[in-house]
Amino acid sequence: MNILCLSDTELVRMYQQGQDAPFSVLIERYKRSVFSAIYFVVNNKEIAEDIFQETFIKASCHLKSANYKEMGKVSGWLVSIGRNLALDYYRLNRRRPAMYQLQDGDYGHLSNHDTSSLASTKLEQKETAKTIRQFILLLPEEQREVLILRHYADMSFNEIAKTMNSNLNTTLGRMRYAIINMRKMIERTKMEV
């Protein structure tokens, strides 16, 4: 039997029965989507990798527990766990100012130390990206999820519909409203994108 050809449901069942290989297949199948959703929120590779590992540890524990009930697509469930852990991290850390270490060991605020025009441009781009991420986090959950999966996890609309357990037209509509809502937020702040 080729384990790679099994459905997610079959892999989950085998993992719950004590086999470890099926869980590795699930990780391999969905690592890109899960990591992309996490990275979008935290915008830091090292932190995203930590949250990625935490996501699959949490998923493993939940699958092994007697409380797990199949509620839909495993891919969507894994992306939701990762995204929620990333959002928790973001909420806890967003109020802390960006810091950097000076050569003498002191710490300073990044915005106070920037003098070159190139660095200034990069800082502006980072601020714009940060603002856009904050806008995306303000979207209704379904719209936010479609937007993240499409643009950051690089999933097709058909894949997103399957992951979210909805039909294609609903998924396309959510994306349309996400874009409309993003435009409204950008116009309200008169931000140049």
**Which residue ranges are poorly predicted, with pLDDT under 50 across at least 5 consecutive positions?**
96-115
Strand order of the largest sheet: 1-2
What would you call the quaternary organization? single chain
Q: Quick one: biggest sheet? A: 2 strands, antiparallel
* Gyration radius over CA: 20 Å
The CATH class of the largest domain = Mainly Alpha
**CATH homologous superfamily heading of the largest domain:** RNA polymerase sigma factor, region 2, helix turn helix motif
SSE order, one letter for each helix or strand = HHHHEEHHHHH
How would the global form be characterised?
globular
**What's the CATH topology name of the largest domain?**
Rna Polymerase Sigma Factor, Chain: A
What does it look like?
- By secondary structure, the protein is mainly α.
- The chain has two domains: 1-96, Orthogonal Bundle (Rna Polymerase Sigma Factor, Chain: A), CATH 1.10.1740; 115-193, Arc Repressor Mutant, subunit A (Orthogonal Bundle).
- Helices cover 71% and strands 3% of the residues.
- The chain contains nine helices and two strands, in the order ααααββααααα.
- The protein has a two-stranded antiparallel ribbon with strand order 1-2.
- Helix 2 packs parallel to helix 4, helix 3 (45-64) crosses helix 4 (74-93) and helix 7 crosses helix 9 (168-189).
- The radius of gyration is 20 Å and the shape is globular.
- Residues 96-115 have low confidence and may be disordered.
